[in-house]
């Protein structure tokens, strides 16, 4: 049956009314949900470890929730007067939310501007000035003019004036400063911050609606920022709270960080940590002890230093852990690895120097005491009976002490690190060194293949040869034959003799200061050799020559070059 002439128009009005009611309900629901979400998240802020971050986010939720609730009142109150009142309340609470937003962003990103008294005073002055204009708007209408409207539904329409746009421009500028702080942190920190990028992006989306409301009648001209804050809060506290906490901690340092829960399972880590421990890539929600046992062992043993091989070098990391607490209970910990390689190397060098000092003290108290006692006893006898024969042992005792002192000083000097080296002709230097100490019928044999150069300090390398040659003569006799040649591997050289050799059980001890098997030896010669080798960052070992004599192999590794 055909509709009456006015039936189509009536149906259109009904559809329009239904659309208006649905749109009205959507606006009320959106702001009511935002208010409830913000206020519902308030108790969860107590789980945030960092005090300033906790305080800033708490008040951001309070003001944003109050702002959204004021919008609900503005849309639902039955009288124009109440609608006007709630709108003004929303204006005041809304501009107030800028302060907690900046406070939160600054605290979360590790800045201190939110604690600057001058900044606080400036914000308060500007805030009070804007609020004063808003509250006195009925007198001057500088901020807005209100009038009843029925499209798209019945409500109090707000027509903004110039001061509104000035205040909004300032508020948006400050809000974008906060966004910049957060984005700068997310880009800088060595972790996956994509979920937080998305959440912060949700916070900024309502700005699009703000702009649309200002230019299009299809969108209500009202501020929507509280909806974005609610979405951010729900996302942080319901989905990504651990990541939210971790990024703040990671932003405080560029060091590797690993976060574990109370059961020792990996919850998060940054890229620097994965660079040190590639196995972390598959470790989320898995026990740390299974994927990075060395790190777990350091924590279990309450040790503080972790050694990690990095190619040909060793790096040292100080391992510290900071607990996460939720409601006063510890729920996990963040593990920070600070590179202390230089400090640890200095400590080791200091320990080595202290050990040398202890060696010197021991030598002085032990080795010098004997010749001193001999000299004193013989001197007393010479004084008593006037026999000068007693003075000859005194002279020998003093010569012995002079030799000990000279070699102790040499040992101290040779342990100093080498700053500059040059290419040294190994065969030529060996011959010059032999000429300084050779005596009797001892002879030097230079292998024809020793046509090489070594990057070394020539004076110390000569001291090395002289001490090895002297050691061979002292223990092998005046007719000993000393040989110098390259190692078969081509990574160093050897010095050997055809003497009695060194017993296998003594080969590790011969390089210790004071070790000697000779009544006339000082025990410093091979210790000096060892110090020279260490100063060059070479290696030396004592072994047996083919003739049965002593053989010393010095490995210079990449420093050894064939001509």
Give the beta-strand count: 15
Spatial order of the strands forming the largest sheet = 4-3-7-6-5
Shape label:
rod-shaped
At CATH's second level, what is the architecture of the largest domain?
Up-down Bundle
Mean pLDDT: 82
Count of discrete structural domains: 4
Q: Provide the CATH superfamily of the largest domain.
A: Rhodopsin 7-helix transmembrane proteins
**CATH-assigned fold name of the largest domain:** Rhopdopsin 7-helix transmembrane proteins
Class inferred from helices and paired strands = alpha+beta
The main β sheet shows up as:
5 strands, antiparallel
| Cα end-to-end separation | 113 Å
* Beta-strand residue fraction: 15-25%
Low-pLDDT runs: 559-563
Oligomer: single chain
Relative helix content: 55-70%
Q: What is the CATH top level name of the largest domain?
A: Mainly Alpha
Q: What's the gyration radius in Å?
A: 42 Å
Total number of helices = 20
